[in-house]
Amino acid sequence: MSKRYDALNKKAKRVEITQVRGGFREKREDLVVSELPLVLLVNGKRLVTMYCSPDNLEALALGCLTSSELIRDRDDVISMKLKKDERVLDIQLKEEKKLVEKPLQLKALASGCGKGELYSFLPAQKIDARVYISEDKIFTLMRKFKRKSQLFKDTGGVHSAALCKQEEIILFAEDIGRHNALDKIIGESLQEGIPLEDKIILSSGRMTSEIVTKLAKQRTPILISKAAPTDLGIQIAQEIGMTLVGFVRGKRMNIYSHNWRIKK
Fold first, then answer.
1. Are strands 45-52 and 36-42 parallel, antiparallel or unpaired?
2. Which structural domain, as residue segments, surrounds residue 8?
3. Which of 4, 80, 147, 214 has the largest CB neighbor count within 10 A?
């Protein structure tokens, strides 16, 4: 187990546990992921409390604001300031009317900015990007992706997401929530000025309707996961023009929609 999480990143901490194996009990220390309740204060108003991993908080907030359609790009944000206790992120947007036009009913999000209350209709324009990737490159990407998260290896308690171009992982994020991990990717891509319209997203979590909707609004053409989709997630992907690939394990995968982007 690595001490850097305790001392530097605050992503995990050591706790005393009783481990039971084969009927024997042993007192020992274990590494568990940290969880932070983060309040997003937007133009002086409490927008939401997110439960998240305590890293890349500005990227997470940007991704959440983008996913909830409160901002379109980084220029919509005047300032972001993390208060001293690191539990409140004070955000100033250019336009106050955005909060009036899209009031949020939800005041707390359990590990993700992905609840239905944050979403309106899907984009009218379908995703038609001519982005392709081969089966072998998907297997290679997934192997690289799984090796990326040392925190998961140490704790087993986080989801991961990545932004990719063919076999290259450009951005990587991890969080206790799969929605948060994706929002960190969306937010960081906004910070770095990286478009998502011609990229591939990798995720460790289920491909639900909310996850697919989140990425459809970014016009992301391909979503790949080691996990399963839901029926509604597949339906939305089919309608919007997104390629869904799930259960990528070893040399196996399932393609659920728009298989023309996946080459042999």
1. antiparallel
2. 4-33
3. 214
Write out pLDDT tens, residues 216-254. 999 999 999 999 999 999 999 999 999 999 999 999 999
Task: State the amino acid at position 36 in one-letter form.
Answer: L
Active site residues: 113
Q: What are 104's two structure tokens?
A: 């949020």
Q: Based on the domain organization, do 85 and 157 belong to the same domain?
A: no
Is residue 127 situated within a structural domain? no
Residues 167 and 251 in one domain: yes
* Non-local CB neighbours of 11 within 8 Å, separated by 6+ positions: 5, 33, 34, 53, 54, 55, 151, 158, 174
pLDDT of 96 reads 60
Reading phi first (left if > 0) and then psi (alpha if -120 to 50, else beta), residue 23 is in left
- Number of Cβ within 10 Å of residue 260's Cβ equals 9
Strands 12-21 and 24-33 turn out to be: antiparallel
For 133-163, what is each residue's pLDDT tens digit? 999 999 999 999 999 988 898 898 899 999 9
Q: How far apart are CA 264 and CA 262, in angstroms?
A: 7
